[in-house]
Design brief:
single chain; about 280 residues; alpha/beta; Nucleotidyltransferase, domain 5; five-stranded mixed beta sheet
């Protein structure tokens, strides 16, 4: 199947052959994209589609794309679990829903069993959680206020500075001057960024300040759960080198980023689908 910039599918074999025989699927309905993962015979396929339509349509499209990559149909799937901001609305999953953070720890433990703390950065906030090697959630803290800690904050900065989202992380690493952004709300940060532009500050310096502002809030939340190594960062923002660098520098810890960080929650949902006959937490 061909891929384009807005919709991507891929087939790969997970590092741990933990799920065999049955076909299960997980769907993560996020604010910026919808992800689907299919697990079958120790293999995994996935699809990512931008959230430009209503949730039901997106969920079905993503799932059918992921199934097509495995040469499977919807009839082959034994169980489906949904997650994410719009996960409870997905008819394909029935009433089978798992929280994003519960799925995040399941997914990261499947891919990287050494991880003990996971940072999930979304469009409107972020969450940090501790888990054991089996993917059991031990404790977590969440930050979701006024778009101050997630992708929305970065999108605002990118638009004001006329920088592509995909380029802003690398550009921030070219900063030469340490400056600060004190606003914690994306709305107020906009006026602060404009003020810095008028003061003649470079785009690189401003972008580094933006990343450090978000990174500082993430590190504060990390400290509140007494994070343990290894630490992983997931979600689309994890592809931003400037964001990962900010967290690493401020927390003095190496950050592991999965090969496809966007699909970890959907993967965890697919793993959770294995337990659909029992109690879901």
């Amino acid at each position: 199947m061909s891929c384009n910039d807005s919709e991507k599918s891929h087939v790969r074999t997970p590092t741990e052959d933990a799920i065999l025989a049955t076909v299960t699927a997980g769907i993560d309905v996020g604010n910026s994209s919808t992800k689907a993962v299919v697990l079958y015979d120790g293999q995994m396929t996935y699809a990512i589609v931008p959230s430009l339509e209503e949730s039901q349509t997106l969920a079905e499209r993503a799932l059918l794309q992921a199934l097509a990559e495995a040469d499977l149909s919807l009839n082959d799937v034994q169980s489906i679990v949904a997650s994410g901001a719009g996960g409870k609305e997905i008819a394909l999953a029935g009433n089978h829903y798992l929280s994003s953070i519960s799925c995040a720890v399941k997914g990261i433990a499947y891919l990287h069993p050494s991880v003990r703390t996971v940072i999930d950065v979304g469009a409107e906030g972020f969450c940090v959680a501790n888990c054991d090697e089996s993917g059991m959630l031990l404790e977590y803290e969440q930050h979701q206020k006024c778009g101050s800690g997630g992708g929305m904050f970065l999108e605002v900065a990118a638009e004001i500075l006329d920088v592509e989202l995909e380029e802003m992380g690398a550009l921030s690493l070219q900063a030469e001057e340490e400056i600060q952004i004190t606003a914690t709300c994306a709305v107020f940060a906009e006026s602060e960024i404009v003020s810095l532009i008028h003061k003649g500050k470079s785009r690189a310096d401003i972008l580094k300040a933006v990343h450090n502002s978000i990174g500082g809030r993430i590190v504060s939340l990390l400290s509140s759960v007494d994070f343990k190594r290894d630490v992983a960062c997931i979600g689309g923002v994890a592809r931003n080198a400037g964001m990962v660098n900010a967290i690493q520098s401020l927390a003095n810890v190496d950050i592991l980023v999965p090969e496809v960080p966007e699909i970890v929650v959907a993967l965890g949902a697919a793993i959770g689908a294995k337990r659909k006959g029992g109690e879901l937490k």
